[in-house]
Structure formats: structure tokens, C-alpha cells
Amino acid sequence: xxxxxxxxxxxxxxxxxxxxxxxxxxxxxxxxxxxxxxxxxxxxxxxxxxxxxxxxxxxxxxxxxxxxxxxxxxxxxxxxxxxxxxxxxxxxxxxxxxxxxxxxxxxxxxxxxxxxxxxxxxxxxxxxxxxxxxxxxxxxxxxxxxxxxxxxxxxxxxxxxxxxxxxxxxxxxxxxxxxxxxxxxxxxxxxxxxxxxxxxxxxxxxxxxxxxxxxxxxxxxxxxxxxxxxxxxxxxxxxxxxxxxxxxxxxxxxxxxxxxxxxxxxxxxxxxxxxxxxxxxxxxxxxxxxxxxxxxxxxxxxxxxxxxxxxxxxxxxxxxxxxxxxxxxxxxxxxxxxxxxxxxxxxxxxxxxxxxxxxxxxxxxxxxxxxxxxxxxxxxxxxxxxxxxxxxxxxxxxxxxxxxxxxxxxxxxxxxxxxxxxxxxxxxxxxxxxxxxxxxxxxxxxxxxxxxxxx
Length: 455
Prior knowledge:
alpha/beta; Rossmann fold; UDP-N-acetylmuramoyl-L-alanine:D-glutamate ligase; 11-stranded mixed β-sheet; 16% strand
């Protein structure tokens, strides 16, 4: 599990240590130099360029430059603002030199120390062109990325590696394309409970020798229609592949589901489906299927609402507010906006607000999928991929999470575990080149095997 803390929490944890004289900057700079050196093709004679801002972030880069210069690197600093003076003097004494933007050309590595975690808004300086640089390492946070929200401003640095100090920050989980590989360096901070987390593996409900199809989770699927039968097939198939003990399907694509998935128990109406331990409702049912959504949400079991079900609930929010059993909404950004507000640049806060307003859990889909409830930690998924931006993959996600709900996971665990496996399945399905919903569905068991090994 990766745990992420806000800038305010980090500053509060640093304050007593700095007052007591703890060498936090020295610890950070040493770790930064070590992480840089081990990624260089060679150390002695390697050309390393520092982009140096005016604050502690720039000072961290300069002190790391001192360490690298002492190991034989040719270190050049490009001063983007007036730097911390004692750090610059130490850098020059160690044999470093000051250069211009042109120094970037031909560098083995560039360290981005322009601004740190306290920076807000667009960059006020132009970042030298870094195209063609073999290794770009961000110091604590890529400049131009908001450390709390992950908002990426114009001109932000796109790093290959981000070395962050003390703890991860929420924005580093969201802005993964700019962060690159994430390295968290322990500098001795004592921190409170993290408000944001990310899974690094999964833990699934265990089966024993007396398990049967009922104890392994019975999930109901209300999805698809004559026009969108594919949504039903994908959703039911994902529930089967995800390990449901039994799948009960209710909908007008009953004949197609029966032919394609003989494991499923099929009926046309929710009222005839029999008892389930969780429901999935919405994919492909059509936006006029109010009665279906109402009937599912009236049941006292966990319910995942997706796609057309979200549109119906946005128009009738009392369907959600009146529920006592757990509810998980799984909107993408356009579906999210139907509930009255845009997602905006702060994905985590937006999802928290909707969850609190409706008394539900929200899984906000996207490259950085966020799962959050009315209170407690948020989870940011780190396996997401643009490969999943293709028709039907949301139906697969819904079916997979529905099974996890039926097997007893709470909405936060089910949502974050399902999103993790979904992203991993996309990567495994065709080697990261392209994929389809059907391929993601087939790769789900392989994703489970790999994720269990990672945990």
C-alpha cells in the first residue's frame, strides 16, 4: 500500500524536527544523489544539469549536486531564480558550475528543482526544452504539478523519475504521466493517518474446502437490452471471470446471455432473479429503465450503479439518498457532471463531495481512477491506462467489482481492488499495445494471479 499525505500534513510533521535541528535537507539531498547515480549509465564524468529554483526544492537539487560532483560527475546548475545562497556556495566549492539553458543539451540527466510541493498555479518561468534528455528526475514533485491535487499546468515538467521525500503526496498518484517512476524516501517524519492511498497488490476473500456456489458470492446483473446486448454479455462475463459463485442475470438480453454464458441463471425481470448478495445495475439498460433501477436499489444488498443507471439516479437522487445498504457509483467525467458539478482539476475532492452529498461511494473513472466514500481515505488506482478508453471496458469493470461486492468486500475495497485488476488486465491483454473489452475480460484471471504475487 502506498500512503499519501497532504502538503499541510508534511509541513506540520517537518516543523518540530527542523526546530530540533534534524538534518532533513541533508537526508533528502543524499537520497536524491544516490537515486540519480544509480540510474546513470556511468557516474565518473557523467554530465548532470540542475534546474534550480529559489526555495528548498532548488537547495535540495544543489546539495545533491554537491554529492554528485564529489563522485566525479560534471554538474552544471541552471539558475531559474535566486537560489538559497549557502547551498549555491557549497555547490561551487565542490566543483559545480553555473550555466545557461544550453547546458541541457548532451546531459546524461537533468534534475528538476524549480519549484516544490508548496507551489500553486502555473509556472512563472519557462522550463528549458527537455526533449531528448535520457533521464529527467523531479525533486519531490515535477514542477508545474500540484502536489495535493495532481493538476498539471501548462509547461509542467514530465519526469522519468520523481524522488519524493518523507511520504508520497496525493497529486503524485494522480499525475502519473508527469511523475514517471515514483520513489519515496524516508527522512524520518512522523505522520498522521494518510487521507489518500494506492494499492500495490490485492487481497481477495479466501475460499476453503467447504465453500460452495452460494458462499462464494451470488451477484445479480441488471444490464443490457435488445439494442445493447453486448453490455450484458461483458458484464456477466466479468462477474464469471472474477470468481462469482453464481451469476443471476435479469434483463431483455436474456436469450443472448443464456447462449453465451451457460453458467448464469437467467430471467427477464429483477423480481424473478432470486436472492443475491450484490447487484450491478445500469450498463446498456437504456435511460428510460427507471423501474429496473428503482427495484434494484430497493433491495437491502450492496449495489453498483453504472452507465444508464447513473443517468437515472442523477435525475432521481432520492433513489440513492434513501438507501441504507452500501452503494457504489462508477461514473466517468461526463456521467459525473450529470449530478450537477464538473469534476474540475481536483479529482479526489470532487469525488469526496459527491459521495458525501449522496451518502454513497464513488469510483470516478479515468487514467487516475479515484474511489472514495463519504468519509475515510480515498484510493487512487495506479494501474489505469489509456488502453481502457474503448467501448465495453466499463461493463467489464462493473461486473468484476460486482463480484467482489458479492464476496463481501466493502465498496472502497471492492472498487479499488476491481480498478487495480481491471487496469492490470488491460496491460496483460495485448502487451500494452491495444486492447478491447473482450480481451480485458479474458485477461482478468491472469491479472488476479499477478496482483496476488505483488501484494
